[in-house]
Amino acid sequence: MDPEDLQPKRVADSLQVLGKEDISLLGVEELKERITLLTDEIARSQAMIASKQGSLSDAEAVFRK
User: Fold this and answer.
1) Structure pTM?
2) What gap in Å lies between CA 46 and CA 50, rounded to an integer?
3) pLDDT at 9
4) Which tens digit of pLDDT belongs to each residue from 19-51?
5) Three-state secondary structure along 4-61?
6) pLDDT at residue 4 above 90?
7) CA dist., res. 60 & res. 4, Å (int)
8) Position 10 pLDDT exceeds 90
9) Burial 1-28 (b: 16+ CB within 10 A, else e)
10) How far apart are CA 65 and CA 32, in angstroms?
11) How far apart are CA 55 and CA 49, in angstroms?
């Protein structure tokens, strides 16, 4: 087994794989489910961005005093 196989996959790698999947084989319901899952992931990512931006603003406020 290659040591790289034991390392967690980077997000960018996962997204590239996702973007290269052949979705032509999926049915309408499967495509709708995929959209729902991706939309949920986008919302989760946006919430994390907002959280990190809030934390950064809080930290900057503390160090400006």
Assistant:
1) 0.64
2) 6
3) 63
4) 999 999 999 999 999 999 999 999 999 999 999
5) HHHCCCCHHHHHHHHHHCCHHHCCHHHHHHHHHHHHHHHHHHHHHHHHHHHHHHHHHH
6) no
7) 38
8) no
9) eeeeeeeeeeeeeeeeeeeeeeeeeeee
10) 50
11) 10
Residue 1 has pLDDT above 80, yes or no: no
Residue 63, pLDDT > 90, answer no
Q: Is the dihedral of CA 3, 11, 39, 55 positive or negative?
A: positive
- Burial string for 49-65 (b: 16+ CB within 10 Å, else e) reads eeeeeeeeeeeeeeeee
Q: Where are the domains of the chain?
A: 25-65
Q: Are 23 and 31 in contact (CB under 8 A)?
A: yes
User: Locate tokens 């160090």: which residue?
Assistant: 63
